[in-house]
Amino acid sequence: MNEFGFSAAIYAAPPPNKKPTHPDTIVRLHGISLVDFSRFALQGLIAEGHLTTTNSLFRATPFRFSEIGGLTANLNDFTNLKKEADELGLTDGWIVPVFGPKGRTGLVSYALPRDQKMMAESAKHKLQHFAQLAHIRLCQITPYMYELNKALSKRETQIVAWAAKGKSNSEIATILEVSEATIDSYLRRAFAKLGVHDRTSAAVKAISMDIIRI
Prior knowledge:
Blueprint: E1 6-12, E2 26-30, H1 34-46, H2 53-57, E3 63-64, H3 75-88, E4 93-99, E5 105-113, H4 121-141, H5 154-164, H6 169-176, H7 180-194, H8 199-208
Antiparallel strand pairs: 1-2, 1-5, 3-4, 4-5
Helix pairs in contact: 1-3, 5-7, 5-8, 6-7, 7-8
């Protein structure tokens, strides 16, 4: 980061079953105190929904801090957060979405630029290239960070796979020759392990983590 001309950098990649504000989400930060970062980013931008991996990854390309306001409908709250950012000196920087195996996605943030040339459009591709390479390398050497706390059982995996194929609980119950209540119970346990609240999200996460294939 120093070579690129930035005084602060943050790397965040939420593991399964962990909220974006969980300490394990933040793998590394540099150039800003943990207290200031927690107050501004974790309790503000992320907790209040202004900046999440979901709305950031949707763009798929780097964007500037000044564009974060476009990711939220509550501009009053964003204005307050912008004031806090200015007080910390985080007036400008880049946010770079990164993508990895088994749905392992994250964000790299370059902040406090010492040279405004690094905020030019021509610089963002170099920053994105470096961030993506670093993310892939970290995925290779820390595979354990993206494992479920508790693996799905064989039956849970089977039921989530049928749900991913569009089968209803009653249809799955008929196929597996069990009651609908049993299917519902297995699905709820699978939801808890996957950290989701509905069958669509469960299917997406299970497929992205290569737990099921359809």
